[in-house]
Structure prediction request, 79 residues.
Amino acid sequence: MNRKTGILCGVVMASLIGVTAASAASIPSSPAERAATAELNRQIAMNNAASEARFQAQLREYEAQKRQYEAQVQASPYR
Prediction:
């Protein structure tokens, strides 16, 4: 019984997703919606670029600290 319920739930979910996708695809976007979507996409792209820049700066800082530590270890008289 449990297996049949799982299969039935899967079929119902697939049907709902199909109906939702079909109804969304048939409604044309207004110019305002397209402009808002374009603006949102620009903001996301800018945020992604800023995030990438922060990551690269952190990576450079980590590499510099790593090189400094390795130089200290090499110069250590306790080695």
